[in-house]
Amino acid sequence: MTRRMLDLRTVTEDLEHVREQLAARGGAGLDSLDRIAELAEQRRSTITRTEALKAERNEASKAMASMDKSGEEFTAKRASLKELAAEIKQLDASLAEVKAELEDLVLHLPNLPDASTPVGAGEEDNPVVRTWGEARSLDFEAKEHHALGTELGILDFERGANLSGSRFTYLRGAGARLERGLMALMLDLHVDEHGYEELWPPALVKDTALVGTGQLPKFEADVFHVGRTYEEGDDSERVRLFLSPTAEVQITNFRAGEILEPDELPLQYTAYTPCFRSEAGNYGKDTRGLIRQHQFDKVELVHFCRPEDGKERLETLTGHAEKVLQRLGLHYRVVELCTGDLGFASHKTYDLEVWLPGQGRYREISSCSWFGDFQARRAKIRYRPEAGAKPRYVHTLNGSGLAIGRTLVAILEQYQQADGSVVVPEALRPYVGGLERITK
């Protein structure tokens, strides 16, 4: 099944616009555009030549039906047909090679930014859209979460490393209960108040699912391969399995290969999953604490909508993620990512950044993105605008609602007290047996 990130026709017929958009994103993919244009022309010319030869072959076959099979004309025509068949076979093989290279190049192209995305080079150019709440004034020196959690006996980094290696952690006692309580609070909020359908998906996913949402082939180093393949189906297809890096993969692919009916949209799904990332390229960053773990917990939000509703749905989804932070009383801000800081698959993105007084900085806790039809093309998710109409690609959106470990980090740092204890946010207390404060 062919899976593309961008529409090949868009790339080849509007090459200069695509070139400008990729340049605004920082230049990723620019070096392959000329080769894509060259291959697209080869593909067109090969198809044209092949179709002409097949038409010639068909006419010759018809003519031979009325010829004397013992005559010289029949013998010559048969020899000519063999030459035609050989040339067609060679052209088919050449076309398959061109298509394979084209698909691989297009799969590595990032999505194009929406026209409303601010232009910028990187993180420093991301504008702050809004801020919620105020940073609490502390009359003592704030500690970072890993120090607080260790002193309180609720985070055990040493035993986690002994069991699984660096960047794995045991949550103990109140820490484990807070993690579980946060998961339940988030899911209840999104299901009961925001109207999401809850899913409980598998943690292992096929390579095709990761292609569908954009993690493969470009980011294979960031995901954990389970080290085995198996045969599936009558054609004995070899399937590779991976630990999912985000529930975006499972939820988006929940409708992969389907055509949605007009009255189904918009759709809202949510799920809790453990997530697994190798953090390739991030060694040396956030090595202490829960910010960048190989295994972490997350509640994900995914929307499917009509193309004309994409921008509005992004605002809705972002608001749903924000509501978790507001319910917990956590000070945060919303920033819009500029073109140079957009994720590989994103069309437009808002990041929610929560204040961490121990670090004295804001840190991302959710990234809410609109992907246009980027993922839908790869995962083959379409809809009918009206009954009987030709299917079109849906638009997909997703965001963390929220990353549970980072939410725990924010609670520890924003609710820490001078005596080293941590107050439990009031909204969370019903989910942790009424616990009001975590003490040594």
Structural class: alpha+beta
Query: Biggest sheet, strands in spatial order?
Result: 1-11-12-13-16-10-9-4
CATH class of the largest domain: Alpha Beta
> Which value, in Å, is the CA radius of gyration?
27 Å
How many beta-strand segments? 18
Give the percentage of residues in beta strands: 15-25%
- Mean of all residue-level pLDDT scores: 92
Q: What's the tally of helices?
A: 12
Distance between the termini: 57 Å
The CATH topology of the largest domain is given as BirA Bifunctional Protein, domain 2
Describe the model.
This protein has 440 residues and is α+β, with helices and mostly antiparallel strands. The protein folds into 2 domains: 8-107, Helix Hairpins; 123-438, BirA Bifunctional Protein, domain 2, CATH 3.30.930. It has helices at residues 8-13, 15-24, 33-64, 72-107, 145-152, 157-164, 174-193, 207-213, 247-252, 310-328, 374-379, 404-414, and strands at residues 128-132, 155-156, 170-171, 197-199, 204-206, 224-232, 237-243, 259-260, 267-276, 295-305, 332-336, 348-356, 361-370, 382-383, 392-393, 395-403, 422-423, 437-438. The protein has an 8-stranded mixed β-sheet. A 3-stranded antiparallel β-sheet has the order 5-7-6. It has a 3-stranded mixed β-sheet with strand order 8-14-15, with no helix packed on it. The protein is elongated, with a radius of gyration of 27 Å. The mean pLDDT is 92.
